[in-house]
């Protein structure tokens, strides 16, 4: 149909073809000229329209043609689909066109076969067919493009990285939730989950599923709670699924794959005039301040976690031992804060990059890889052995030697370590704050992650900059050595907990590899401690082969599916695994449902489960009230759970929800008590 309509608006094709002028100049560029064998490399068609001309989106609308690529590739090399940036709308003679009126890029992935020798030359050729139009005429154009790649190390120049980062930034990002649509009475209605605090500009839905809506019909966008409601004229019957892109700002959009379902009534109408020209997802100063406040409080509470508190306590003891050198103490406080904040910002930046690349990752995403669990286990075990006195490593211990040197280097790395080992936890205030960060602009989102780090660093900053607080520390004495060894116990407990998580993620074989690695590192540290006690120089060298052997074991740790905790055998009540369809069915039937999302590496989750959810009184009350319990296991980063979390403004676990008879889901506090849950049954 689009081809037929395209021909109708092509009165100038013959004349333009005679001139052989390229009205949209196409070029082919590669992110790396030396891609690695067995790895993908990103290419891009860079399209530059002449003034007054435009190209077309994948679904061109009522008229137009999408870009077609015919490849000539070396054996074993394959090209992926073309990705399209967020388009603009253009109405010509009552026909809606989805177009690009300025320079745009269409990235794609080229996959190389494994086993190619370095230096192998890879000639890449492609014929590109596309349509170039003005408001009056259209010209089918083609370009014969070529680029030569050489198998190498995959290096990317700064200029190429900046260019391709810009190309990727223009692509729509995946929606962190499930959209629903309905077709009835000649109207198409779509509900898209979007937190009420998030502002949008110039909202518009670009359909990828053809023949469902009238492209030229106006779209009405309204906001109802945490959802955007899009309404327009329907053109055909309801499909099984509806794909498309929702524009939420100039050049910004979200890809969505909607399913049939209930769409709420329209809410408060919005549009460009109502939302202003704020960037998509800006959320305003109020949203940013609220997210920052939650991040600060959440980070502050992380300090009482058993894997962080010993590290903070040990640094406090180093201040007590170090005396009253005000400048030195303040430098240590700043260095510790810098380590914490930089790690939180780095983890946040990686998370945002993963989501921008299409992943549904959430906070603590790195803990879904068992190799990271092994590294954390080795670190916490090493800290425990250090606290127990097996060896001295100033960068971890913060002891007398470090204090005597000023300790800024040790303080920085201690702060970085504290932030890294704290990531399994999403405590009170953190969930909403980090969920908001994922829909804020990049700079604002990174500010929220920095706020989380600042919250963690506040206690040490107070010790460093408020002498009265520091004066409350007990005087140095023999008790400090006893306290140091006591603090080793929660670190060992954390290491054992991580070993259990490793067993859940990678099976018994994976856990055994991790424990062997821990034993090897412990032997190396014991050797180091013996050399230190003997006063030998370069006492640390036995640790090098131990770490090398441990790294080799870490590299081969398998990733086996963690068997989800599908049931809780308490008071003869069992939880069922989370499933969207089952949840919807329970709600439709008026069955009360308690839903909670957990992960084996989430300390807050496990505390709530043992202290509240799995209590016999709670389960008995649930059974009497007919409340169904559903559990979502996010240990391995289930993508559907990630999307569901995003729908409720969260980027990590825990998340607790309850729906009474005929009532919608409501979010419960992140810290549960038996009384909170039994009240639901009442």
TrEMBL record:
Membrane topology: Multi-pass membrane protein
Domain Thioredoxin: residue ranges: 556-682
Keywords from the UniProt entry: Cell membrane, Cytochrome c-type biogenesis, Membrane, Signal, Transmembrane, Transmembrane helix
Tagged with keyword S-adenosyl-L-methionine: no
A Pfam family the protein falls into: DsbD_TM
Signal peptide limits: 1-16
Compartments reported by the entry: Cell membrane
A Gene Ontology term for the protein's cellular component: plasma membrane
Single GO term (MF): protein-disulfide reductase activity
Biological process, per Gene Ontology: cell redox homeostasis; cytochrome complex assembly
Residue spans crossing the bilayer: 288-312, 333-352, 372-391, 412-437, 443-466, 486-504, 510-528, 540-557
Domain of life of the native organism: Bacteria
Keyword Transcription regulation on entry: no
Protein name: DsbC/DsbD-like thiol-disulfide interchange protein/cytochrome c biogenesis protein CcdA
Species of the source: Sphingomonas prati
